[in-house]
Every structure is written in C-alpha cells, then in structure tokens.
Design a protein that fits this description.
This protein is an alpha/beta fold. 33% of the residues lie in helices and 17% in strands. Helix 10 packs parallel to helix 11. The radius of gyration is 23 Å and the shape is elongated. 45% of the residues are buried.
Length: 392
C-alpha cells in the first residue's frame, strides 16, 4: 500500500479525498463529531501541501435518491469552523461536472461533492461512475477505513483509474489493528460485548487462536449463562445458540485461550430501575440482567493487570442508565490507568463503546479508538476488505 504522507510534489494537484463523515444528525444538528475530528489531520496535511481538495463522502442510506435531510451541508458548516476555511458544497449533478468547472476561484481549496450515495451507481460499484469521478482529479486518497468493507465505486473501483494512496487515518487504523492481529504483545485480552453472539462468532473464532483471554460480557453473556444452567430471568437472549457456545468453549480449550463470562450480575426489573447485585443462582423470573457484578469486575481488572494488549468491543452493561454503567466504567478506568504507565496497548471500537467513552471523556486515553463499525469487525474477523485490497 502506498501512503499519501510519503508523496512529494503534491502542489496544486487536485486530490479526490474519500472520507467517512457519516455522522448522526438530528434536526440539522450534528450530535457526535468524533468522525469529523478524526479527519482533521488529513485535511490539514493536504492544505499545507497546497493541494486542491475535492471531498467525497456520504450520510445515511439515501438508496440512490436525493434526500435533502441527508445533505452534507451541516458537515461542511461544522468543518469550516474547525479548519477556518471556506468550504464549497457542489449540489450540481456529478455527471455534468468537469474538472475545469472546479476551483475556478483561486481562493477555493476545499470543495465537497454532495452525498455520493445520492447516486445509485456508488453502491453498485459502477465502473463508468468511478471513471467519471476520476476525471475530476489527479490523485485519489482513501482516508475512510470505516467504509473499506464496502465494494463501492468511490472506495474500490476508483483505484483503477487514478494513482491511489492511503490517507493518514486509514494508515493509523490499519497499523493499530495489525498490533492486535499480527504484531501481538502477549498476554492479549479481548473484552467483547453486544447483544448477539451470532454476529460476533466470526471475530471470536478468528481471535481465539491469537488471544490468551476472551471475556464475554453484555447481552451476549446471557446466552452463556443460560447454556451453563444459570437462570437469566427476562434478560435479552438469542435463540438456538447452543452449538455456537459449545464451539467457543471447545475452540478456546484447543488453543489455550481462557473464555471468561460473568460470575455475578446487576439486575433490575426494567431498564430504568436501580441496580441490585445478585449471584447467578439468585436471578428471578422477572429480573433483567443489565450489568456485570463486582466479583466479575474484579476478575476482569485482574486479567487486564497482567495483559500487555487489550481490545474492547461492546459494552458490559446498559450504560445508558448510570446505575448499570459501573462495569463499563471500571473496565475503562483500569485500561486508562495501565495506559498512563505505558504498560498496555489498548484499542476500543464499536459505536456503543465509543458512545460510552465519549460520555466519560475518555476517547483520548486509549492508544487507539476506531470509529469504524463493520470494517473494524470484518478486519478482526480476518476478512479481506475491498477498500484495502484496492489500495494494495
């Protein structure tokens, strides 16, 4: 893979820059700016190199149709303040655009094309669409790792028509993930949560041979507790997962990876309730398991203590209610303490995990926090990502 940071003579070149600015927007207001903040380094780098920057991005799933609610306008306005530069948003039909139409004003340095998913050709990975986009620029830079699991025109096909490079964020992201998948500092621990064990089985199977500890928390853990014969009340549980769970324990044993799951839990009668500590055999039929208990927290902290690398994907409990956020908080606190002394390499990923870390202002206390959802998980699963393959 070639990296844009290593390239000379970019002066006055038009850079077609693919970003992921798919941020949550409510009533025209951006509610989480994490993804915008992550792309500032590549914009500032290209501005300093005196390039002309033509940005491609998307918001939501407009399914190939123009939807003004999914315009990039609020993002452009937000970015203008952050980089202290005027940003033009071109709403004109891309097929009617020519290279000479762009950057007519010498002061223009950053131009956005409107939501690229307004064109059905984008998600269809249409080669003619990619070819047309390529004619608008001199160089292509992909700095949207979180879109790299998509075989879309502005992610994979476009590299056939322009000199193509990885951006700063994409390089950082892949380097961080390599540290937990190939350049491993052992002992290595994975804390994995979420509601469905079936959606994470590929990751678990791929990581068990490389990891020393696999800690399963959140809704996923209820399946294991039920499998082991513990009552889980009316807690969230996936059906027909017995074979998957049996496979996880067997696979863990074969590869000397410890599978850890809750030893005690925090329950409530509903999600707005107060938390009550319960041993596993004390869970009643009308109880909801909504967090891990103190014994489980201590065990996880002891494991983090002896780990050199920690990967965290998925919350330990229903952190939206502070009464059930203690598991997440204690895990985060322990990782942060180890990070301060450079005793651990830590990566966190997944929307809910990021939402929690934002809630406690801890995003910058991890070695790396991935904003990529699907791409992050598919990379960990060992799948080849179309966007990465296209750059190689």
């Amino acid at each position: 893979m070639k990296y844009i940071k290593d390239q000379e003579n970019l002066n006055e070149k038009i850079i077609l820059l693919r970003l992921d600015l798919n941020v949550p927007i409510k009533n025209g207001i951006i509610t989480d700016q994490t993804r915008i903040d992550k792309i500032l380094p590549i914009l500032n780098f290209l501005i300093k190199k005196k390039t002309k920057i033509l940005v491609i991005s998307h918001v939501g799933r407009p399914k190939g149709k123009v939807n003004n609610k999914l315009s990039l306008k609020p993002i452009c306005e937000n970015l203008e303040k952050k980089i202290n530069q005027k940003i033009s948003l071109i709403k004109k039909d891309v097929f009617k655009l020519k290279k000479e139409d762009l950057f007519k004003d010498s002061k223009d340095q950053v131009i956005f094309l409107e939501n690229i998913r307004f064109y059905e050709e984008e998600e269809n990975n249409d080669p003619n669409f990619s070819k047309h986009l390529a004619k608008l620029a001199d160089v292509f830079v992909n700095d949207a790792f979180s879109c790299c699991h998509r075989a879309h025109a502005s992610i994979s096909k476009i590299t056939e028509f322009l000199p193509s490079y990885a951006g700063l964020q994409l390089e950082t992201e892949t380097n961080a993930l390599k540290k937990v998948t190939s350049e491993i500092k052992k002992p290595i621990t994975c804390i994995i949560g979420g509601s469905k064990i079936s959606t994470k089985i590929g990751i678990i199977r791929n990581l068990i041979p490389k990891f020393d500890n696999m800690i399963i928390v959140g809704g996923m853990a209820n399946n294991i507790l039920s499998f082991k014969g513990s009552p889980i009340g009316k807690s969230i549980k996936e059906n027909n997962c017995e074979a998957i769970i049996e496979d996880i324990f067997k696979f863990g044993k074969n590869h000397s990876c410890s599978i850890i799951y809750p030893e005690d839990v925090m329950v409530g009668k509903n999600k707005t309730d107060k938390a009550k500590i319960k041993e596993l055999n004390e869970v009643k039929n009308n109880d909801l398991i909504l967090d891990i208990g103190p014994k489980t927290i201590k065990k996880i902290k002891d494991i983090i203590d002896i780990s050199k690398t920690v990967l965290w994907n998925g919350p330990a409990g229903y952190f939206e209610n502070p009464n059930f956020a203690n598991g997440c908080y204690e895990i985060a606190k322990k990782i942060i303490d180890k990070n301060k002394d450079n005793l651990i390499y830590s990566i966190a990923g997944g929307g809910d995990t990021i939402a929690f870390l934002n809630q406690i202002n801890a995003i910058n206390n991890f070695n790396f926090v991935s904003t990529a959802g699907g791409a992050f998980l598919e990379y960990l699963e060992g799948k080849q990502l179309p966007g990465i393959k296209a750059l190689n």
